[in-house]
Amino acid sequence: MQLSHRIETLTPGGSDGWEVFYKAKALIAQGVAVTELTIGEHDIRTDPAILQAMDASARGGRTGYSEIPGIGALRDRVAARITERTGVTTGRDNVLITPGGQAGLFAAHCAVCDPGDAALFIDPYYVTYPGTLRAAGARPVSVPTRAEDGFRPRKAAILAAAEGAAAKSLLINSPNNPTGAIYDRETLESIGGACVEAGLWLISDEVYDTQIWDGAHLSPRALPGMADRTLVIGSMSKSHAMTGSRCGWIIGPDHAIARLISLATHTTYGVPGFVQDAALFALDQGPELEELVAAPFRRRRALALRILAAQNTLRMLPPQGAMYLMLDVRATGLSGNAFADALLDAERIAVMPGESFGQAAAGHIRVAMTIEDEAFAAALERLCGFAAGLAATQAG
After folding, report:
1. 270-284 tens-digit pLDDT
2. Domain residues of the chain, as ranges?
């Protein structure tokens, strides 16, 4: 029997961008030692106190159906957090709790795009973005950026893409995965201006908002006139090392959240109560716990800056946030795909090719700073040595 066109075309050409990751996992399954620097998974696990709160909640009976919009106390806590961080008054009716940020992205696009509508997203992008937009029935259209601009989008490029595709929405991500770029106020004001001029909803993926190394995070929802046209995606995954718990949220105008609650009723049917109770406990621990979770990546960024300053083959835009390095490998004569594949074969180090994140990242690799400091530094030095050897061969 024939499957739907929608499901058959989620990843055109059959590639989902994860081939090197799958190859590394297959080697590991065979007993081969591989240094894994592919996905954004913390090397520390969820804090034991959070797990204790989750266990107590589950054992206390919170294993049945939970409130579909999210339990009131968690919605209130998330609303207070958003108000404190952005200055935008936010209440319970502006919050929907979702099964992680990924589900939030899907739901947000369902809310603002009809089937066949064009939905813009910034290139480079997180690997799942185009497929998520297709799953929601939208037609993904990329807005290219340039390394010379720090991978920040230009207003003219957004407007050109919006006009050419008759777009309904724009998806942005700051701090950015994969580049580590943080959009400054000027950039966000130009993005907001483009959304107003083109009549776009803005969907802002802010799951890395607690991982800030240089500069400051500004939510575009806080800009004048943007609260009524912005949906913000947040999550416990990166801020509290709760990736497997699947607890996130959408922040938006109350009329949009009301409709999104209806969507949740017909799709996810909410998030388990014991997970929400654990998330509430985690948020109540305050910024100290969030800084504890972020601290390893801050240290490893400093290590990376030192190691990369001592070589002259790879170029890097110093990451301002998030848990990744974006390295330009074009001096080796290889594409990002070819470099990542060769690195895995020769050094047993797994990284993500830049091409997995779009054409703007071609010729780059993304390195996740997600293993212990000493092992990370050793792997990065080996990676640099491998690149230098390729570059020398290319020059010869």
Report:
1. 999 999 999 999 999
2. 5-45+288-388, 63-286
